[in-house]
Specification:
Blueprint: H1 2-5, H2 9-21, H3 30-42, H4 47-61, H5 69-75, E1 78-82, H6 90-97, E2 102-108, E3 111-119, H7 120-132, E4 144-146, E5 189-193, H8 200-207, E6 216-221, E7 223-228, E8 232-237, E9 243-251, H9 254-264, E10 272-277, E11 281-286
Antiparallel strand pairs: 1-3, 1-4, 2-3, 5-9, 6-9, 6-10, 7-8, 10-11
Length: about 290
């Protein structure tokens, strides 16, 4: 290791000790190493040193700075690809990229298939890693971008909230344990609907539920409707006194919400808002 990476003997010993004492020694599965072994051993690597090389490369490519504007769109996107090659199991993706990538079963061209769901940064890590191994690995996954409305509800502030600049200090956490509602993973959760989704049959088809949804007349303040794309309506920030009337419905699960997010696409964003149910009841929820 000292010759491969230019470490002193003391530094090499520290790195080896850290790798061997780790609960997850390296980001390289046995399956991945078996594909790379012959070529990398010829370069002087064993599994530990090559895993360390991946670690160094990954660190240099995933620093703490914000991505450039040209890549920000991709970073917020989600992708799906069929597991295969060195990524037969989802654990191989997690080891390489250091992320909690999700796997789901589905039906592909060859029958039952395992798919991986990853973000833009993980996609680039996989592509760059495979590019480094192009002389040994011919496998190239086909990434399909999934267009869904982003949902990024902060736990440390009220961001994003309709009608207010929720990044300002007065909207941040003022005491330890303060809860901003609703949380990103909170279900059931009330949604405010306007435009085409006020129609119960349209919403039923969107959510994939067997019965017509029982929607409640509702209104929100702090927002206004704008025409988007000549025909679609979009709810945007407005003055505090502005009011929009519509309907509210309680989404029961993350699965129902996912259907809704795919229907709305990334052209829209889920934000917190205060929903007035009927004439009196007011709740903090999302639109």
């Amino acid at each position: 290791m000292d010759k491969l990476f230019g470490y002193t003997l003391s530094e090499a010993r520290q790195v080896i000790a850290r790798i061997r004492s780790s609960l997850n020694p390296g980001k390289l599965s046995e399956e991945q190493w078996s594909l790379l072994k012959d070529g990398e051993e010829a370069e002087g690597h064993d599994r530990e040193t090559y895993a360390h090389q991946i670690e160094l490369w990954s660190t240099s490519h995933r620093g703490g700075s914000r991505p450039r504007s040209s890549t920000r769109f991709e970073d917020t996107s989600s992708y799906i690809f069929t597991l295969g090659g060195p990524f037969v199991h989802i654990e191989s993706v997690r080891r390489l990229c250091g992320v909690s990538a999700q796997a789901r079963k589905g039906y592909g061209e060859e029958g039952d298939t395992d798919f991986a769901f990853v973000d833009g940064a993980t996609k680039r890590t996989i592509e760059n890693w495979l590019g480094m191994q192009s002389h040994q690995i011919t496998y190239r996954p086909t990434f399909i971008r999934l267009s869904q409305a982003p949902k990024d509800l902060s736990n440390a502030s009220s961001y994003p909230t309709l009608g207010i600049e929720s990044t300002l200090p007065q909207h941040r956490m003022v005491e330890v344990g303060q809860v901003f509602s609703p949380a990103g993973n909170e279900y059931p959760v009330w949604y405010f609907f306007y435009g085409a989704l006020m129609d119960s049959e349209t919403l039923q088809g969107c959510l994939g539920i067997p019965d017509l949804p029982r929607m409640t007349p509702a209104s929100i303040h702090g927002g206004t409707l704008r025409t988007w794309g000549r025909k679609s309506k979009a709810l945007v920030d407005g003055p505090a006194e502005a009011q929009v009337n519509g309907y509210a419905f309680c989404i029961q699960s993350a699965e129902q919400e996912e259907y809704l997010r795919f229907r709305e696409t990334e052209a829209y964003e889920i934000v917190r808002c205060r929903i007035v149910l009927g004439r009196e009841s007011e709740i903090t929820s999302v639109a």
